[in-house]
Amino acid sequence: MSADIIDGKAFAAKVREKVATHVARLKEENGITPGLAVVLVGEDPASQVYVRSKGKLTTEVGMNSIEHKLGADTSEADLLSLIAQLNADPAVHGILVQLPLPDHLNEDLVINSIEPAKDVDGFHISNVGLLGTGQKSMVPCTPLGCLMLLRDYHGSLSGMNAVVIGRSNIVGKPMANLLLGDSCTVTIAHSRTQDLQDVVRGADIVVAAVGRPEMVTGDWIKPGATVIDVGINRIPNGEKTKLVGDVDFASASQVAGAITPVPGGVGPMTIACLLANTVTACCRANGIKEPKGLTA
Ligand SMILES: Nc1nc(=O)c2c([nH]1)NC[C@@H]1CN(c3ccc(C(=O)N[C@@H](CCC(=O)O)C(=O)O)cc3)C=[N+]21
């Protein structure tokens, strides 16, 4: 193995420490405790993984964690009325509606009913538009976490060739916008991209966010490139299962200059950035100068 391992778990712990410092300051100087509301509808297994550590880490940094667990058969009207209630609640600074939602609920409608200033996922159309035009917004947690890791490792990203594999609204598109904001030359590749391997081979930075276990192998990687693996895939491993990314770590780490592991890479950064976004939202809501380095 030759690649540096980018330790997302350790970096996320530092981000959370910084968040905790600002939470303590908000309490002491302003008498405000940031509050994060999480809304869960039904029981999607991928969401469960996420929820496990999230509530714990929220209280660990000193914030209030408000959890609403609704049945899988919850009506759209009931969900929208809960969101309206959270929008109006001054103790709630961040709202996250866990995705995916059950099929009978319109995800776009639900997300766009969240007050944009409280949209700590950064999925509301207003925040998407603000990010796309380089204006101050709430930035989606996973791409923000990836950007923090890349900036920490490289310093400046200016002029680098970045290839984002995956075009989701949650990761691929906002990731591309953030990299463009840092003056990368950005390509968004996806399942229909022709000669995908050749496209990836041209990249100084590869962000893999396709949801296909170990799809990106070492022979796709330009020697010395930085590889950010967003994938979290549970695959069979003998009797049990194991988590793997969208990158084949064994082969890619022979070729890359730096690489994030799964687990312990991007995943912990996603949660740290959710907490960071909640502090940012709380400061903005109260006209308090927001901490530096916790957003893009
Ligand atoms: N509105 C919304 N926003 C989300 O951000 C969101 C969501 N819905 N729905 C579910 C997915 C999933 N997700 C994860 C985040 C961190 C880890 C994470 O920290 N994973 C650990 C491993 C955990 C383990 O060992 O099982 C790691 O990669 O090291 C996992 C999954 C956020 N999601």
TrEMBL record:
Domain Tetrahydrofolate dehydrogenase/cyclohydrolase catalytic: 6-121
E.C. number: 1.5.1.5, 3.5.4.9
UniProt key word Signal: no
Reactions accelerated catalytically: (6R)-5,10-methenyltetrahydrofolate + H2O = (6R)-10-formyltetrahydrofolate + H(+); (6R)-5,10-methylene-5,6,7,8-tetrahydrofolate + NADP(+) = (6R)-5,10-methenyltetrahydrofolate + NADPH
One of the record's GO molecular function terms: methylenetetrahydrofolate dehydrogenase (NADP+) activity
UniProtKB keywords: Amino-acid biosynthesis, Histidine biosynthesis, Hydrolase, Methionine biosynthesis, Multifunctional enzyme, NADP, One-carbon metabolism, Oxidoreductase, Purine biosynthesis
UniProt keyword Hydrolase, yes or no: yes
Record pathway: One-carbon metabolism; tetrahydrofolate interconversion
Span of domain Tetrahydrofolate dehydrogenase/cyclohydrolase NAD(P)-binding: 140-284
Binding site for NADP(+): 166-168, 232
Subunit structure: Homodimer.
HAMAP family registered for this protein in UniProt: THF_DHG_CYH
Record family assignment: Belongs to the tetrahydrofolate dehydrogenase/cyclohydrolase family.
Known function: Catalyzes the oxidation of 5,10-methylenetetrahydrofolate to 5,10-methenyltetrahydrofolate and then the hydrolysis of 5,10-methenyltetrahydrofolate to 10-formyltetrahydrofolate.
Protein name, per record: Bifunctional protein FolD
